[in-house]
Automatic annotation (TrEMBL):
Organism expressing this protein natively: Papilio xuthus
Higher taxonomy: Eukaryota, Metazoa, Ecdysozoa, Arthropoda, Hexapoda
Family of this protein: Belongs to the peptidase M28 family.
InterPro entries from the UniProt entry: Fxna-like_M28_dom, M28_fam, Peptidase_M28
Gene Ontology, cellular component aspect: endoplasmic reticulum membrane
Protein name: FXNA-like protease
């Protein structure tokens, strides 16, 4: 009887010890998670200081990008089909591109085109649908290097990079982050590229997209009907579901791994998430971007970049230029410009080099 009582005490002590060890591990896990969240929050707040650059400099100027953003959002909501979107915003885009062209170096040129098209396409979005559109507009620009130009017949095909953003908005929102900031970043990155004191080796096509919120219409119109679409080999799409913070590379592919090599080796502030890609492409998130259109209807590989901080402003009247930090514009602009300029990390991977 004494031996059995002692065994029960020992067993009870062992159970208590195991419980204490389990509790310590649980506390350690909670503490580690909290530390990681604190580190992530600190990294989120650590953004590069905005910088100024002369109009003919090949560096990104966050203040100039912010001026583009203020000018665009001053129009107000820009719903596809409205006067604000089809006339005023188009006028803004053309004028901004003319300013970019005015600061191009003698080695580069910029061609501007206002594009309108009609069409239809199927989408497996939500419950599935056929999206029919008529006369949707976009403003497109193509930057070329002047040196060593060959005739169109001899020029190799699919040697342009597409940079896409959209200036239309949902009703009632000034759309500063979604996606006026993307357009501001794209315009300033384009200016820095064409201002460079050397010719571009490969063309850059900038699509200022006028009908994304109507479920991706203008990107389909461009990739299926525009005269420059057949020359595009890859794309970079700038999006947002929040204002500011670090933009995340949340979709890439489906082919051409050299793009990720360029991203990893060239951009100064890389931030990518394969988990975000799995979640987004699983269908659990009821949203989509022009990435799908360029991939499915253009047969292209590309990258999707987006801000997600302060998501409460997304698609609301609160999405104003005042809520987009200058430092966030600078960070995204530095990354996008470096990506456009970046050389391959491995000489054997790509044949296309952007300078």
């Amino acid at each position: 009887m004494i031996s059995q009582a002692m065994e029960e005490r020992v067993e009870g002590a062992e159970k208590a010890l195991r419980g204490a060890v389990s509790a310590r591990w649980a506390m350690a896990a909670v503490a580690s998670t909290a530390l990681l969240l604190l580190l992530a929050a600190a990294a989120e707040r650590r953004l590069p200081a905005p910088r100024r650059a002369p109009p003919n400099a090949d560096a990104f100027d966050g203040y100039r990008a912010h001026a583009h953003l203020v000018n665009l959002t001053s129009i107000g909501a820009r719903v596809a089909g409205s006067y604000e979107n089809e006339v005023v915003a188009v006028r803004w885009a053309v004028q901004a591109l003319r300013q970019v062209a005015a600061h191009a170096s003698p080695h580069n040129s910029l061609e501007i085109d206002v594009h309108s098209a009609s069409g239809a396409f199927p989408l497996t979005f939500l419950d599935g649908m056929n999206n029919v559109y008529r006369d949707v507009q976009s403003v497109v620009a193509r930057a070329r290097g002047r040196g060593g130009e060959t005739s169109r017949a001899r020029r190799p095909s699919r040697t342009a990079l597409l940079l896409n953003c959209h200036y239309d908005t949902v009703p009632g929102s000034p759309g500063a982050s979604d996606d006026g900031a993307g357009c501001a970043v794209a315009l300033e990155a384009l200016r820095a590229l064409v201002a460079a004191p050397r010719p571009l080796r490969h063309d850059l096509v900038l699509l200022l997209n006028g009908a994304e919120e109507n479920i991706l219409q203008a990107s389909h119109a461009f990739i299926t009907t525009h005269k420059w679409a057949r020359d595009v080999r890859a794309f970079v799409n700038i999006e947002a579901c929040g204002a500011g913070g670090r933009e995340v590379l949340f979709q890439a592919g489906p082919h051409d791994p050299w793009m990720l090599e360029v991203y990893a080796g060239a951009v100064p502030h890389p931030f990518a998430s394969s988990l975000a890609q799995e979640l987004f492409q699983s269908g659990l998130i009821p949203a989509d971007t022009d990435f799908r259109i360029f991939r499915d209807f253009g047969g292209l590989s590309g990258m999707d970049l987006a801000w997600s901080s302060n998501g409460y402003v997304y698609h609301t009247r609160l999405d104003t230029a005042a809520r987009v930090p200058l430092a966030a514009l600078q960070r995204t602009g530095d990354n996008v410009l470096a990506l456009l300029q970046g050389a391959p990390a491995s000489p054997a991977s790509p044949t296309l080099i952007f300078l």
